Give the backbone structure.
Amino acid sequence: MKKISLAYQILIGLVLGIIVGAVFYGNPKVATFLQPIGDIFLHLIKMIVIPIVVSTLVVGVAGTGSFKKLGALGGKTLLYFEIITTIAILIGLLIANVFQPGHGVDMQNLQKSDIGSYVSTAKTQESHSFADTLVNIVPTNIIESLVKGDMLAIIFFSIMLGLGIAAIGEKGKPVLQIFQGISEAMFWITNQVMKFAPFGVFALIGVTISKFGLNSLIPLGKLAICVYGAMIFFIVVILGLVAKMVGVNIFHIIRILKDELILAYSTSSSETVLPKIMEKMEKFGCSKTVTSFVVPTGYSFNLDGSTLYQALAALFIAQMYGIDMPISKQIMLVLVLMLTSKGIAGVPGVSFVVLLATLGSVGIPMEGLAFIAGIDRILDMARTVVNVVGNSLATVVISKWEKQYDPEKGKKYLQSVRNAV
């Protein structure tokens, strides 16, 4: 009997979760029974993310062992992230201008959701300037940063530790072997955790559908269609062209990551797939150094799906209120989003927080977000897929840019994935 692949197991969990959520729509007992299962899965993932990032980054940087090489890698990575996220913002604005999803929406028929938690987070973030963000990259207490999951501070410390291990030569080898052992052990744990993924997906999607129902999509159907259409366009056309420029096929990357994309979509969390992306991109021919640096950094600076959505949602709210947005205001929106979408990465509900911090500066009522908060989870699922594909492609692009990509290894891995289907 042929074993059902993980991708199909997750898909079955997704479909069953939708059915259970729809059947028991409005029943609070669904959340009582299923939420703990979903939370256990998310906790398992969070348990392994930081040890994997630290160990792989230390090993990768120690292999480079040079401030100069690392500086070049960091500069190219951030430049690429800024270009791609800016294109994502422009695509979001283009789709909103062409299809006008906010025109004709009757706000009387829309349900308002509570966005108080996002508002308080946004106010906290607004008190931090861009300079504060740069300062906070350097941790004062690495244990505290590890506990909080402050990814940028963790990345900074791991890079410094990796350079330190490389600098002390032979004395550093035993320490390096410890981190190599931790890295391999954590990837083994990841593979065991992934076996629980179909149950986690079933529970999380079941709770979501039971709370919001599929009916909540109808009044905002045009927005949902525009968001999903924009996300598909961005992956196929924009990321597809970038992939072609560096000699890879975007559909090959999607095929390799099919399990992770279904999981990311179902849970609307990029974090759930971070360990497997790092593992698979390395198998696809990217160097360990580039993979261990680009993927975690991308989670803070390269949220393509999120930035695209923020631009589209901002214009949707303006259109809904009948606010005129001339080109000058839209350019201002692009410039503000270019900064805000980087400065507060990593906070919960990051797209909502960024929008709250941005809308006021271009004269759009922040209260408009309360109308779309109800379907945000459904839209977040699409955003997450784009974020995952964007970061995976970035790893290939930077590996090729740094001449640290092994095409033969990539071909063999792709063939093994094809044969496994």
